[in-house]
């Protein structure tokens, strides 16, 4: 293995034996998302926070715990710019916790909150933000071993067509003979390619990045299940089986929280594909609105707010998302936070 190309030692993303992975507690350092470098703090629970702090098991005020995947963790932006951080600033009377971590899905929402409840953590409301990608992750990544322990490993390596990462707009060239025999030459070649790729993405239009297999394409498998019956890459269970599995894991979570007197709320939001190819009343919103009936204290459907923004800004993809990526930038987080704060009664 080329030592120059070894992955950096990301010390704050760690394995957890109960719910697969988490963030290290009491971390003060930096993370990177693409070309964006940003500071990260975690508290004593290993939750992303405004600073390193000791979190008591019981709070002296109402405590609201958010959980979700990379969108809730809010990759690429400082905590103060995340929608959870903005919500916390708008509600200083609440003790707000953010248990979200990249690649989580309903199986982890259940296991992680179960773990912390059994550890004695007290909170009054859990707000679960269910991501578009949760359906594929439930279909292909999460399973229980013979001891009933949740595992995060794909049953078989995904094919290129089913990669969770979209196809880059600049194909990677074949290695020359020098790159094959020299670690340094290979490293320099990778560095040049990375710079050319970044420049290519920056110059690209939405149309360029919407070509088949690209990050904003209609046929990108990961988000396409909400609007395409032909979506593939959902394993043996398929889309419908994955939706059923996600609902069942959320049923478990509802029963767990209810048994401990904790209110449950659920939120949903669009990816670029939903704004480009789907409708405001997306299948994602329909599924979780129906599931929430009789269970949730609140259901936050942020699709209307994002579709209203789309009507006002023709360059909405670049405005709301990191360019060449599906995650919200600071403006996207702000839009979600504004809608959340307005509807939080």
UniProtKB/TrEMBL annotation:
Listed GO MF terms: hydrolase activity
InterPro entries: SGNH_hydro_sf (IPR036514)
Listed Gene3D superfamilies: SGNH hydrolase
Keywords of this entry: Hydrolase
Protein name: SGNH/GDSL hydrolase family protein
Organism: Methylocystis borbori
């Amino acid at each position: 293995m080329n030592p120059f190309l070894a992955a950096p030692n990301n010390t704050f993303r760690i394995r957890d034996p109960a719910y697969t992975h988490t963030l290290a507690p009491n971390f003060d350092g930096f993370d990177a998302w693409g070309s964006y470098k940003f500071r990260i703090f975690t508290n004593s629970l290993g939750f992303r926070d405004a600073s390193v702090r000791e979190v008591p098991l019981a709070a002296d005020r109402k405590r609201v715990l958010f959980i979700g995947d990379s969108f809730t963790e809010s990759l690429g932006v400082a905590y103060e710019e995340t929608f959870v951080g903005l919500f916390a600033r708008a509600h200083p009377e609440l003790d707000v916790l953010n248990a979200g971590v990249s690649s989580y899905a309903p199986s982890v929402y259940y296991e992680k909150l179960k773990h912390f409840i059994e550890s004695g953590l007290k909170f009054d409301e859990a707000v679960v933000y269910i991501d578009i990608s949760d359906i594929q992750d439930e279909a292909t990544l999460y399973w229980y071993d013979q001891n009933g322990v949740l595992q995060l490993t794909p049953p078989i390596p995904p094919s290129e067509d089913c990669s969770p990462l979209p196809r880059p707009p600049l194909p990677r060239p074949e290695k020359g003979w020098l790159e094959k025999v020299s670690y340094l030459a290979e490293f320099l070649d990778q560095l040049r390619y990375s710079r050319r790729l970044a420049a290519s993405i920056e110059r690209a239009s939405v149309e360029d990045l919407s070509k088949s297999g690209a990050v904003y394409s209609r046929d990108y498998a990961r988000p396409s299940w909400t609007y395409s019956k032909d979506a593939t890459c959902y394993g043996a269970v398929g889309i419908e089986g994955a939706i059923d599995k996600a609902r069942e894991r959320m049923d478990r979570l509802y029963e767990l929280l209810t048994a401990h007197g904790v209110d449950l709320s659920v939120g949903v939001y669009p990816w670029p594909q939903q704004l480009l190819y789907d409708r405001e009343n997306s299948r994602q919103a329909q599924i979780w609105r129906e599931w929430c009936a009789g269970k949730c204290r609140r259901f936050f459907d942020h699709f209307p707010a994002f579709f209203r923004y789309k009507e006002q800004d023709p360059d909405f993809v670049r405005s709301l998302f990191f360019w060449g990526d599906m995650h919200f930038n600071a403006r996207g987080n702000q839009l979600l936070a504004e809608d959340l704060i307005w509807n939080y009664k």
